[in-house]
Amino acid sequence: MRDRTECLNVICRDICENLGGGWALQCQRMPKVLSRNFGEIEYVAGEQFVFPSGLPGFPSERVFVPVEVPEQLPLLYLQSAQTPDLCFVTLPVSCIIAGYLLSPNSNDLDLVGLNSYSRPGAEMLCLAILCFETDGTAAANLRAPIIINVETRMGVQAIQSRDDYPVRYRLGPDSEVTLCS
Questions:
Q1: Which residues does 67 contact at the CB level (< 8 Å), separation at least 6?
Q2: DSSP character for 154?
Q3: What is the predicted pLDDT for the residue at 178?
Q4: Which of 72, 79, 129, 154 is deepest in the core (most CB within 10 A)?
């Protein structure tokens, strides 16, 4: 992500420096967030995920910047735009359990502009938040995934209406976490 944003900044700067003679072009700097884990992150405005109701336990945290580290794909980090120390580690649920059945309530879907026919894929991103135990093992919250409307980039942590999946699905050497598309 940094290479792309640095490239866009250079292009913008070059255009601004080379245009003259009455051109009224204002170049805007890319927004930045501070991260304890990643330092200063520049991102393209509109790339951030917005959670209108915040997240459970973090009601005032409403804007997160998705951060991909190519060597760590398919992990996706959600860095708070407000709190440098708050960064969630997530995985697409389809990488954890093939055929994962999402059953959010209609209020959660309405909040982000989706409906009961929406499915993870082109219109919806469905992520499990990971937590790490003191012994180094990881667990995924499959009961309350993060749902992102890909078009609007609005998100919600959706508590499943069924309890088919655990809050702590243990990931380990025997887990079949896969690279997913």
A1: 1, 35, 38, 41, 76, 77, 78, 79, 87
A2: B
A3: 52
A4: 79
| Domains of the chain with bracketed CATH | 48-171 (2.30.290.10)
Helix (H) or strand (E) segment spanning residue 15: helix 2-18
Range in 2-6, 100-104, 105-109, 134-138 the model is least confident about: 2-6
Cis peptide before 74 (omega within 30 of 0): yes
Pairing of strands 76-80, 63-67: antiparallel
Nearest CA-CA partner of 8 in 35, 32, 28, 34:
28
Which is nearest to 180 in space by CA: 67, 74, 70?
Answer: 74
pTM score? 0.80
Residues in contact with 92: Cβ distance below 8 Å, sequence separation at least 6, in sequence order = 74, 76, 120, 125, 126, 127, 128, 180
Report percent pLDDT > 70 for the chain.
Answer: 80
Pairwise CA distance, residues 172 & 66, whole Å: 25
| Residue keyed to tokens 């005032």 | 60
* Residue found under tokens 């702590």: 168
Please report the beta strands in the chain, taking only residues with DSSP state E, as ranges in sequence order: 32-35, 39-42, 49-50, 63-67, 76-80, 87-92, 124-132, 138-149, 155-157, 169-171
Task: Determine the Cα–Cα distance for residues 140 and 120; give it in Å rounded to an integer.
Answer: 17
